[in-house]
Amino acid sequence: MAHAYRGVASRLSAFAAVAGAAALAACAASNPPSSGKVPVQVTPRPMPPPGQDWHALVIVPFGTLLKDVPYRLSEVVVFHDAASAGAGHEDRDCYSVEGTAPPRLFGRPAGEYSLCFSSDRLNRIEASMSLPAESASAQFAAACAEWQSKGTPGASTPDRCEDRDGSTEIDARLTTSAASAEPAVSIVLVDAAPIRDAGP
Questions:
Q1: DSSP code of residue 65
Q2: At residue 5, what are phi and psi to the nearest 5 degrees?
Q3: Element (H, E) at 172
Q4: What is the pLDDT of residues 18-71, one digit of tens each?
Q5: What is the DSSP string of 34-46?
Q6: How does pLDDT run across 102-145, given as a tens digit for each residue?
């Protein structure tokens, strides 16, 4: 009987030791040693509303040579720009992109999208996409405010937004789609950097 009692007492003693060690560990974890420094609170930067970053339309960098564009292109229009011609620039040739999904802006794919080249280098991008009638004006105004907060603002009206971000000039307009009669954003991005010689 005494032997059984000693066995029970031994087990109880071991259990108490384990429980005590666990309690001490929990206490240490809840009270980490202080280094004397106040923890720095990092506030994440506010992210812009998704889908309104115009950079999404630049699928290849401005200045890219026509022969180096990694997409299949189909010529859609050749137009004469008198101002550019007077400055000694060649006429621009514009191409649609085939075989790949169009870029998206405002969360919608571009219904029309073209890359335009002068002296065989990309210097203009044109795109348009439809917007829901109930939110078109609000989306356009929010996008314009976001663009102009990061660049050099130009015109800003309920249906037009101009901005310059670095060497990129932005001209966006809220219009009505001729095909669907829905509100649509038409946007033109122009590289204002000097046109470089295409080289050999």
A1: B
A2: -65, -40
A3: strand 168-176
A4: 444 444 444 444 444 455 555 444 344 344 445 789 999 999 999 999 999 999
A5: P-SPPPP---PPP
A6: 999 999 999 999 999 999 999 999 999 999 999 999 999 999 99
Give the number of other CB atoms < 10 A from CB of residue 11.
Answer: 10
What whole-number distance in Å separates Cα of residue 116 and Cα of residue 86? 18
16 Cβ contact partners less than 8 Å away, ≥ 6 residues apart: none
What's the whole-model pTM score? 0.68
Cα separation, 4 vs 60, in Å, equals 84
Cβ neighbors of 144 (< 8 A, separation 6 or more) are 156, 161, 163, 172
Enclosing H/E stretch for 74: strand 72-79
CB 115 within 8 A of CB 98: no
C-alpha gyration radius of the chain: 31
Structure tokens that stand for 193 in this block: 């950097």
**For residues 179 and 185, is the Cβ–Cβ distance under 8 A?**
no
